[in-house]
Design brief:
9 helices, 2 domains, Creatine Amidinohydrolase, Chain A, domain 1, alpha+beta, Peptidase_M24B, about 375 residues, Creatine Amidinohydrolase, six-stranded mixed β-sheet
């Protein structure tokens, strides 16, 4: 039986619904042409996401017609997906050719006259200078438009995140099983990474964070070849990837009993995680939900070492990271309303210099009854 390795993660109808949702937002705002350049946003709308060499844009017209502008070599991807992807028309930019000229000409051809253009101001902002300017009355900022649509995940998206979560959780278990005194953090990282791939993970947007000892207090520092000693605090944070939908898990271990301080820090983080699971519900604001987590640290006298938001959105993402902070997050002074189907990496963690990073992580989907795990395991501190 042949396998279609170029299949899209979702049915065509789901992508067309996303396209039409974008068109509805464009109509509300009076936008004739939307120029997108976020890889994650283009992937969400079409099913095509590539780490293309050079700039890539997706131009969407109000009536739903769309066209790619990308490096000529990269158009091979679009040709391979013809008949599977709703946007299979593209304009190639030759090496050495001016991207801005080609992009501006394509926009003018697709929407002649004086259209109202909305642009995601990212790596394409400079390329568009001379054709559109942020100060022009007819040019709008499209940043955040597609992100608004990405906040609530469909059942098909949640299924991919759940599969990725189980892969990530297994990689942590495999790392813990292989853990031994004297092995290096690099050797442990190799076990974790191999487990991700062996259990079905696709390309990951970011390598796992694996570290031991007080160095773990340095956010996102990963392996350096240092040996792991008895009593060291060990951090393992991988993300499984299925069709570029990433679900991270953060787990904490030691060989032999950790210090009393580390034990207490974990207990406080686990209490905060449990409080969130017990009390956060759809309809709350992000701020209200954040305060449920934060109040535990304040009550227990650990607020000084909680230096990050309690949770960030997860979904379909690309390098350099697996998070969707620009889509949604649970953080103070943020009035966005929580909805069923939002997916988060809930990670109440404490960073204390000289001790390390300790937390209680759980990738989760928000349901009518509260959070539900996407990894199928428990947040426990593992001791060998």
């Amino acid at each position: 039986m042949s396998i279609d390795y170029d299949r899209l993660p979702f049915q065509p109808e789901e992508y067309l619904a996303r396209r039409d949702a974008l068109r509805a937002l464009m109509a509300e705002r009076g936008i004739d042409v939307c120029v997108l350049n976020s890889t994650s946003n283009m992937y969400y709308l079409t099913g095509f996401g590539s780490l293309a060499y050079g700039a890539t844009s997706l131009i969407v017209r109000a009536d739903g017609r769309a066209i790619w502008v990308m490096r000529l070599t990269e158009l091979s991807n679009i040709r391979a997906l013809k008949g599977k992807i709703w946007v299979d028309e593209g304009v190639g930019v030759r090496d050495g050719e001016d991207y801005a000229t080609v992009l501006a000409r394509t926009i003018a051809d697709l929407a002649p006259g004086k259209p109202v253009v909305a642009v995601e101001y990212g790596n394409v902002q400079q390329a568009l200078r001379g054709f559109v300017k942020p100060t022009d009355d007819a040019v709008l900022n499209a940043s955040g438009l597609v992100e608004h649509l990405r906040r609530v995940k469909s059942p098909a998206e949640i299924a991919l995140l759940r599969k990725a979560g189980f892969i990530a959780a297994q990689s942590c278990r495999d790392g813990f099983a292989a853990l031994r005194e004297g092995m290096t953090d690099a050797e442990l990282a190799a076990v974790v990474t191999n487990s991700l791939l062996a259990n079905g993970s696709h390309r990951v947007a970011q390598m796992p964070n694996v570290c031991a000892g007080p160095r773990t207090a340095r956010a996102h520092v990963t392996w350096c070849g240092a040996p792991i000693s008895r009593g060291d605090l060990i951090n393992i944070e991988p993300a499984g990837s299925v069709f570029d939908y990433h679900t991270p898990v953060y787990r904490f271990y030691s060989i032999g009993e950790p210090s009393a301080r580390v034990r207490t820090m974990f207990e406080v983080c686990k209490e905060a995680l449990n409080e969130g699971y017990a009390n956060v519900r759809p309809g709350m604001t992000s701020h209200e939900a954040a305060r449920i987590f934060e109040s535990v640290f304040e009550r227990r006298g650990f607020a000084e070492w909680m230096v990050t938001r309690p949770a960030y959105s997860i979904g379909g993402t690309f390098p350099p990271g697996w998070g969707e902070d620009n889509v949604m997050a649970i953080r103070r002074n943020h009035d966005a309303v929580l909805e069923e189907g939002m997916c988060f990496h809930i990670s109440p963690v404490l960073y204390q210099d000289g001790i390390g990073c300790v937390g209680a992580s759980m990738p989760s989907v928000l349901t009518a009854n509260g959070f539900e795990s996407l990894s199928g395991d428990e947040a426990v501190f593992g001791v060998k």
